[in-house]
Structure prediction request, 140 residues.
Amino acid sequence: MQYQIINIKTVQTRKEGQLSFFEGAHDFPFTIKRIYYIHHVPAGAKRGAHAHKTLQQMLFCPYGSVTIFLSDGEKTEEIHLDNPSIGIVLQPGLWRDMLWNIDNSVLCVAADQYYDESDYIRDYDEYINYLKVQKEEANI
Ligand code: T46
Prediction:
């Protein structure tokens, strides 16, 4: 499955609390062009239900708990983002669903491209067909 879990650098500060950070060229496999975050979502709500053709993204949850369900058309995996020091880098071509486990959890995303709706595949049958065509093209 085309994703990596990354440890976000976190320091125990002299003041109460911890501070987590990442630096573009040092800690990232891509150049960040866009950051967005999803908030005010009630527990039990689901989002996602799409794949990206080319977009790479890093997802992390600085507050709360969100489960990410991934599929590559054959296998499925789920990752629990409930630690502000953990992120996942998703490569293109993965179907994703997200489940909010706790009210008002925040899901932050750093992306390597500007928003472009034409990069989304939002229909699962279309996604399976897209993967099939990709495989056929790779074998030519
Ligand atoms: C993803 C997961 C993890 C914008 O106008 N600009 C943006 O940068 C984004 C990300 C979205 N939008 C608009 C497009 C839709 O009209 O916001 C609306 C909701 O987007 P969507 O239904 O795709 O949201 P999610 O939470 O299902 O998915 C989002 C990202 O879109 C997606 O790339 O991988 O978070």
